[in-house]
Design brief:
275 residues; alpha/beta; three-stranded antiparallel sheet; 30% helix; binds S-adenosylmethionine
Length: 275
């Protein structure tokens, strides 16, 4: 069997604090499957390309893209300690300094100031839902991309299972409503294990942030309105069982779920957008 790009003893995994969470755990199997499906299986958008990784965290996907033949990778993230850790890890891995840049930057600020078509490919993996303006972010990323955008994100179905009281809060949601061109919003704590979301507000003495979750139908309407072609990536070869959002409601269901269930259920989707 081919050696995974991120082996079990990789320094990227040694620093990973998110190995055991239920949705998109950063354990070797899920991480390498995502690298494989999102990057390795799209070589025409990675090999020889100058790539921007929006929300690059400690640079795991940026590193993988370079190993898969990218020419140059620019990683941006608002969390300084993750950017600094990424730079350390790249040095430890012996990556030539002229192959990458990692900077602390807010996605909007960076994208508003970058020239149109500055990168052939833009990656936005696990980040679109952290903004309250996902359409504006998409538009800006497509402006920065000369050729393509690879997007991996949670959808409205994630709001329907988010939090203990989701079934009550979203009692009116069902499989049909999740197919509508809607966007749901959920509250989240800005302080995550290893990064803090850049925007938060005070509500009843609690610091809160918003996640915004468009349905895949709405995402596809947005893609059409922005004049790009898109292909929804098919994760079915990774699935272990039929699964809908209703199989992921309770803590026990979440705990015993397989990582690919979020894709199977449509709670998370990935797209390759081409200009
Ligand atoms: C869930 S992690 C995703 C990391 C990585 N892309 C992946 O898929 O494994 C989200 C990252 O987005 C960053 N982030 C959140 N809001 C951001 C913003 N407005 N601009 C840049 N980065 C942001 C966070 O600091 C965090 O590192």
């Amino acid at each position: 069997m081919k050696k995974p790009l991120i082996p079990d003893d990789s320094p990227f995994l040694a620093h990973e604090t998110r190995k055991n969470r239920w949705a998109i755990p950063y354990h070797p199997e899920c991480l390498n499957a995502r690298i494989n499906h999102l990057l390795a299986e799209n070589p025409g958008h990675i090999q020889g390309k100058n790539i921007l990784d929006v929300g690059s965290h400690m640079g795991t996907f940026a590193y993988a893209a370079l190993m898969l033949g990218a020419n140059f990778i620019e990683g941006i993230d608002t969390e300084e300690k993750m950017v600094l850790l990424g730079r350390e890890l790249f040095q430890e891995m012996g990556i030539a300094k002229d192959k990458y840049s990692m900077t602390v930057s807010d996605a909007f600020q960076f994208l508003e100031n970058v020239e149109e078509g500055s990168f052939e490919t833009v990656l936005c993996l696990g980040m679109l839902y952290y903004t309250t303006e996902p359409y504006r972010l998409l538009k800006l990323m497509l402006r920065a991309a000369k050729e393509s955008l690879i997007l991996d994100t949670f959808t409205a179905g994630y709001a329907a299972v988010q939090g203990k009281d989701a079934p009550q809060v979203y009692a009116g949601i069902n499989d049909e409503t999740l197919e509508l061109p809607i966007m749901l919003t959920a509250l989240t704590q800005p302080g995550k294990k290893d990064y803090t979301l850049p925007n938060s507000f005070d509500y009843r003495n609690k610091d809160l942030s918003l996640i915004t979750l468009p349905s895949s139908t709405l995402l596809e309407i947005w893609f059409n309105s922005l004049g790009v072609e898109f292909k929804k990536l098919d994760w079915s070869s990774y699935s272990t069982r039929p699964c809908t959002y209703r199989d992921l409601l309770t803590p026990d269901q979440k705990k015993s779920s397989h990582w690919a269930d979020v894709y199977k259920s449509g709670i998370r989707v990935s797209y390759l957008l081409s200009k």
